Amino acid sequence: xxxxxxxxxxxxxxxxxxxxxxxxxxxxxxxxxxxxxxxxxxxxxxxxxxxxxxxxxxxxxxxxxxxxxxxxxxxxxxxxxxxxxxxxxxxxxxxxxxxxxxxxxxxxxxxxxxxxxxxxxxxxxxxxxxxxxxxxxxxxxxxxxxxxxxxxxxxxxxxxxxxxxxxxxxxxxxxxxxxxxxxxxxxxxxxxxxxxxxxxxxxxxxxxxxxxxxxxxxxxxxxxxxxxxxxxxxxxxxxxxxxxxxxxxxxxxxxxxxxxxxxxxxxxxxxxxxxxxxxxxxxxxxxxxxxxxxxxxxxxxxxxxxxxxxxxxxxxxxxxxxxxxxxxxxxxxxxxxxxxxxxxxxxxxxxxxx
Length: 354
Prior knowledge:
The chain is α/β, with parallel strands linked by helices.
């Protein structure tokens, strides 16, 4: 055995303790979210455990241990003099303001669903046959939708669509839009709310997602001008679209090149294809050490790669494919121009034209 550097070992152990503390927080954060404890602290201000428990009709002893755990996590504040717990404005943005760009309960749900799907993904390691989307755990697709929603709420209309050449004017006048891989429909409905003169169709191959998307459309009063259909990307019929959007899904597809080729047939000659993909460098060495890439590589191991492997071709691009590989794939499918229109801390937005 090689000599062990004590300082490096200590550094690694302390890092692991931090990581495990975060992992152990997943169930407690989820309980606090579901029981409305974060929301109550945000709405009602500093509270003792007894006050918090009384408002929510919960057992005080359990609530106190939960609140102390969140204080140890750094997710709530604790004042020992008053024995009260509170949320700072910054903590509220993460745990209690659903339209905040950093609202994170969905990420904790994703972590729990990945753990639930671990046995199936492990088997996929042995066979290489993947795990079909929706099959790994109870409601992974719900958790993923919740995880991505804050970014969509704060990015699609504000910066992503305006970064496409001339597209906002077309959407305001009335465009025909396909949202491919729409999931539970958050992205489609956000666009429809912003551009009431345009027509939107969301497509996804996952039946339960489309069922939820239609329910969301009805709940928001948009079912009369937004429709959702179950269809794999390569089997979408029709066409003549001014804009095709794909949010965080091309890398999950089994045959992304075949999908790109089909998107080419669906666009108007002067139309645009907007792809939102996880931010990444073009080589693994560019991503190692980034906390965002760490999150995406782990999620890709448990979700993205197995999902692709379970489909036709099984290209398994992964969530850290990078712009260069994606652009090469898109141009090989027949698109003449691909550019990075804009980017954020978690995503890059590519614009492809014929």
